[in-house]
């Protein structure tokens, strides 16, 4: 079922974002009186076709392979053009018109991202207060003086209100300067500024959680683990563990958190573990043997359950809140988040090129499908935020000066503006071959990373 949800969510995600991108090209071309012949979402065999009854008789196509789309315009380089329509052919247009048509695709991806981010804030985003959790000795966070239950208020004067905003701002500011000024409110309600120097570590050197590398986590109130899902044929299923069982202890140790239970199970692969659980108001003992699983060359134990955190109503109210915004503030936040994340994406690409970020951070269709399924399962606003991030990433990627992408065509047009004439067909054809190789290698790398994540 999870695979089906991920697949459907992925197809919907790609369909929406491709439609947005291609509609940008389509809409601007129509506004500039360039004749459009076909608007297609997907490639391969058409599943649905409609031809408009208006003068241009545009063909609208939904095809079987959802990985892309295109807008076909009248062009003398692709066939004979009736003399009466020659003035509307794409190749006959002045360079500024062609530039705008090509630019419109990525531009609409950014516009969609702004609208999506803004909508999530108007609806309300479930958020977590940015309290600092346990601080590991000897790490940059410890050296900066961070204490448990510090509440992060701003990073380099950029205000933050939630855990997700802290993560985004920390990475964004780190990419500009690894020395960060962080304003916090201590658990004693004192306002303090701490200097977090991350110059000694590379946050993106691998795909592990970059925030954890600072030496601090996010605070979680005391809670007990509750079983949400028992996987079939797992150690938990064989032992009789059930959904909604509350784990009270393991081998006599109090179950203080999901983390402590998980770590103990991982350390006891193939060894009998006695769990004291509460089921329907009564306590009982469940004995199980965690199955040994190899992860990163090391054998760890897994019992085959998904655990959730059961905490008091008071702690839940203190930690979780809904982030709302008025229409004006939501639009402003949508613009700011789109801009900041776009710049951050470019900076990360720069780090990849110079070797300061691992290529393992590059994700392909399998990872995107997985996150699409997860976000869709959580709720509409989470999925909408996911769409916004993927949309702006597509916008940034398409603006890179790589032949085959929109940015490559825009680069050709800039050359044309400077030299006063179009680039030669030979030069453009050679660029297309180079671009095809570059995009192909990028896709192979992304899919390879996806496969290694699955195998790992």
Overview of the molecule:
- By secondary structure, this protein is of the alpha+beta class.
- It has three domains: 93-124 and 324-456, no CATH class; 125-219 and 315-320, Roll (Pdz3 Domain), CATH 2.30.42.10; 224-310, Roll (Pdz3 Domain).
- The chain is built from twelve helices and 18 strands.
- The chain has helices spanning 2-31, 95-123, 140-143, 163-176, 235-239, 258-266, 313-319, 327-354, 365-378, 380-399, 406-419, 425-455, and strands spanning 36-51, 59-73, 125-128, 132-135, 151-155, 158-159, 179-185, 191-197, 216-218, 224-230, 246-250, 253-254, 273-279, 282-288, 291-295, 298-302, 305-310, 320-323.
- The strands form seven sheets. The protein has a four-stranded antiparallel beta sheet with strand order 6-5-7-8. Strands 12-11-13-14 form a four-stranded antiparallel beta sheet. Strands 1-2 form a two-stranded antiparallel ribbon.
- Helix 2 (95-123) runs antiparallel to helix 11 and helix 4 crosses helix 8.
- It is elongated, with a radius of gyration of 27 Å.
- The two termini are 21 Å apart.
- The model has no long low-confidence stretch (mean pLDDT 87).
Give short descriptive properties of this protein.
Pdz3 Domain; four-stranded antiparallel beta sheet; 456 residues; elongated; 18 strands; alpha+beta
Entry summary:
The chain is of the alpha+beta class and 456 residues long.
Number of beta-strand segments: 18
Mean pLDDT: 87
Strand content: 15-25%
Number of individual domains: 3
Summarize the main sheet.
4 strands, antiparallel
Strand order of the largest sheet: 6-5-7-8
What structural class should be given to the helix and strand makeup? alpha+beta
N-to-C span: 21 Å
Oligomer: single chain
Order of helices and strands: HEEHEEHEEHEEEEHEEHEEEEEHEHHHHH
What global shape is seen?
Answer: elongated
Indicate the radius of gyration in whole angstroms.
27 Å
Given as residue ranges, the uncertain stretches (5+ residues, pLDDT < 50) are none
Tally of alpha and pi helices: 12
Q: Kindly state the percentage of residues in helix.
A: 40-55%
């Amino acid at each position: 079922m999870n695979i089906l949800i991920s697949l459907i969510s992925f197809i919907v995600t790609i369909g929406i974002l491709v439609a947005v991108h291609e509609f940008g090209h389509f809409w601007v071309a129509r506004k500039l009186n360039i004749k459009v012949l076909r608007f297609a979402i997907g490639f391969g065999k058409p599943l649905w076709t409609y031809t408009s009854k208006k003068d241009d008789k545009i063909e609208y196509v939904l095809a079987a392979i959802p990985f892309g789309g295109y807008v076909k315009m009248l062009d003398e380089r692709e066939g004979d053009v009736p003399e009466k329509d020659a003035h509307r052919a794409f190749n006959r247009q002045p360079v500024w018109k062609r530039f705008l048509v090509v630019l419109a695709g990525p531009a609409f991806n950014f516009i969609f991202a702004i609208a999506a981010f803004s909508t999530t804030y108007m609806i309300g985003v479930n958020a977590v207060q940015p309290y600092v959790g346990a601080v590991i000795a000897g790490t940059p966070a410890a050296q900066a003086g961070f204490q448990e239950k510090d509440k992060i208020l701003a990073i380099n004067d950029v205000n933050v209100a939630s855990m997700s905003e802290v993560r985004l701002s920390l990475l964004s500011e780190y990419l500009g300067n690894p020395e960060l000024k962080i304003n916090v409110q201590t658990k004693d309600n004192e306002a303090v500024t701490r200097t977090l120097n991350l110059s000694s570590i590379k946050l993106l050197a691998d795909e592990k959680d970059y925030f954890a590398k600072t030496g601090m986590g996010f605070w979680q109130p005391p809670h007990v683990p509750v079983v949400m899902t028992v996987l079939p044929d797992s150690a938990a299923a064989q032992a009789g563990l059930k959904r909604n069982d509350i784990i009270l202890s393991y081998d006599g140790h109090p179950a203080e958190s999901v983390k402590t239970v998980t770590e103990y199970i991982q350390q006891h692969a193939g060894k009998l573990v006695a769990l004291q659980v509460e089921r329907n108001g009564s306590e009982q003992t469940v004995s199980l043997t965690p199955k040994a699983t190899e992860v990163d060359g090391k054998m760890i134990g897994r019992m085959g359950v998904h655990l959730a955190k059961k905490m008091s109503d008071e702690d839940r109210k203190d930690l979780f809140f809904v982030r709302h915004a008025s229409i004006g503030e939501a639009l402003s936040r949508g613009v700011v988040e789109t801009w900041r994340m776009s710049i951050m994406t470019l900076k990360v690409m720069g780090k990849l090129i110079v070797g300061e970020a691992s290529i393992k951070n590059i994700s392909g269709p399998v990872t995107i499908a997985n996150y699409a399924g997860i976000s869709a399962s959580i709720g509409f606003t989470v999925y909408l935020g996911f769409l916004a991030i993927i949309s702006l990433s597509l916008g940034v990627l398409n603006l890179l000066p790589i032949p085959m992408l929109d940015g490559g065509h825009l680069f050709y047009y800039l050359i044309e503006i400077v030299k006063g004439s179009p680039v030669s067909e030979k030069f453009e054809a050679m660029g297309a071959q180079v671009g095809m190789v570059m995009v192909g290698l990028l896709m192979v790398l992304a899919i390879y990373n996806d496969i290694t994540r699955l195998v790992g």
